[in-house]
Amino acid sequence: MPPPSWIVFGVLCAVLAAALLVGAYANASFAPDRQHTHHGQREVPSAVVSGGPIVSSTGGATRSYRLPPRTVALTFDDGPDPVWTREVLRVLAAHQVPATFFVVGSQVARHPELVRELAAAGHELGVHTFTHPDLAVLPDWRRRMEYAQTQLAIAGAAGIRTSLIRFPYSSYANAISDLDWPVFTQAGDLGYLSVLNDTDSRDWALPGVDQILTNVTPPGYSGAITLWHDAGGDRAQTVAALDRFIPLMTERGYRFVTVTDGLNLALAEAGIDHRVDAGQAASAGERWRGRMLTWGVQGADRTLGWLGVIFLAVGALTVGRTVLLLVLAGRHARRRRAAGWSWGPPVTEPVSVIVPAYNEKEGIAAAVRSLAGGDHPGGIEVIVVDDGSTDGTAEIVEALRLPNVRVVRTPNGGKPSALNTGLALARHELIVMVDGDTVFERDSVRRLVQPFADPQVGAVAGNVKVGNRDSLIAKWQHIEYVIGFNLDRRLYETLRCMSTVPGAIGAFRRQALQYAGGMTDDTLAEDTDITMALGRAGWKVVYEETARAWTEAPATLGQLWKQRYRWSYGTMQAMWKHRRSLLDRGASGRFTRRCLLFLSLFGVLLPLLAPVIDLLALYGLFFLDRTATVVAWLVMLALQMLTAVVAFRFDREKLSVLWVLPLQQFVYRQLMYLVMIQSVTTALTGGRLGWQKLRRTGLTPTPTRSHSG
């Protein structure tokens, strides 16, 4: 990928990380809950402890105020909420009374239209912090940030500032402790009036309407600031109690005021010539910064929402693919192993094996020996097409002096050209195509061509095995070959939509290859391209699990990246090349619709979106329910382990290697994600990828057949 693409990808990752962090902050993931107990009241002025619910502490001067008798201020915490705040507004409007709403800044950013409605209806706004933390355990700078961000959110929504504040988890004046008092003094120095309450509805506990009325009604005819909630859960009881409380108090001669109006009444009755303003107009800069804060929170919420949708989609695709594999691939395996099952009469026609080779000196001798020594009764002709090698590949093959092996030298023209050259020189109608680093078992050619007993079969995919399984990376690839390739081929054969006959071991009818136009260099995945062409032409493409070939898997992450990048990009090229046949009638359209559907869903979309699983798992460990996150991840791992066990049983492979499967989730899967992302980016930007030649060390002599453990 060109460097600019990596920069764009890095920027997108940074934006996504920022959105997730903003979402975590707005969802109070960094906000500590109330945990501490009472810490004494030695430092709290006695005038405050025994005073009223409105506290002013500025410059060392501390005062508290009560509302006058027969005066009630309705105050609501934790909103705005799109459902219950509107229900509260409906009741207030019906009775034509004002109220004071202590709003949570993150909720203001999510529902700014509600805050505008509150202000337009004449209700008063107060700060209830941005994320509802326990302020007593936060440092000073964090408290200031909580207040300032809430003010900005209010400014962006309603264009005003407020001087009222209510701290989360606060209650009555006589409950203020030494741990809480510095919060009050700091807020006072910042110009805030701290508002507590005289009566608490405790509606959050859902005690019933009658009990809420009992809790909130002041004794005698004393004035009261009453505490209610318009968010945080089902507030139907709150709304019903409010609808009864207002007429009840009106009948008792009470007047309803906002907190500021009630304070001004108290000041006037005390003969204090001072008036507190309900709010001030915010500056243009504050309004713009408030809107930006709102956009940031809403953008983070939308990002998390879309990630949640993608998570569900990935989960559905994963489960759907697993069910299809277990049901259809299982049916395929049981049918093949049923007593008396066969493709038909034994196929004994001679076979031509084409080996395109470019600088394959490390493994070519073992590959050619394994092919020439096959036990196919009709005879095997091996044609090694040396595609301009510079490492003596052709000389190594010639030095073997095997009677049924021919070496053809051509200028370097690429793998498709070498395969077409071999096809033109082949003497027989049954063609096997093999990579130059692949070692066959003695009976592989014979087993591979048996499906041609069915005249409708045009191509056969063999069973590719990883030969170098010593390293952890190779073990991961071994698992992937058994699960992701061989199990998939059982499924795709059953659905008649096989997309790839692997270059390492594949057999073809010459007639089918010629009808499809031979091998082309239109894509970097010539094996996928020709397989799709054969499927469109109506030929059956099948999988023969007993024909096994051993290939040398990339031994480093860099080499693996190059190989999978070419595979992914080449597959997308083939999909694009054959896209127009989606609308074809007959066999071509049926095959293409099935093939491209499964490739798009499971070959491109699923690996492209699967990083969301890891992303949300990481997010959940830090910011959500850790237990639920771990359980969800373990369920996904168990699903993968089940699929792996089934696939390994079908392939008669030892299960002991599956101990590395959990480790595969932390490195290998992420590498495959990045490969797919890079491939899609290259395709979308119109880039052209060249052939990625891998370094080989060569396999040991033909491995013996393994058995399940």
TrEMBL record:
Residues 70-257 form the NodB homology domain. The keyword Glycosyltransferase applies. Residues 1-28 form the signal peptide. The chain crosses the membrane at residues 304-328, 595-624, 630-650. Pfam families: Glyco_tranf_2_3, Polysacc_deac_1. The keyword Transmembrane applies. Keywords: Glycosyltransferase, Membrane, Signal, Transferase, Transmembrane, Transmembrane helix. Gene3D superfamilies: Glycoside hydrolase/deacetylase, Spore Coat Polysaccharide Biosynthesis Protein SpsA, Chain A. GO terms for molecular function: transferase activity. InterPro entries: Glyco_hydro/deAcase_b/a-brl, NODB_dom, Nucleotide-diphossugar_trans. It comes from the Bacteria. Belongs to the glycosyltransferase 2 family. This is Bi-functional transferase/deacetylase. It comes from Micromonospora lutea.
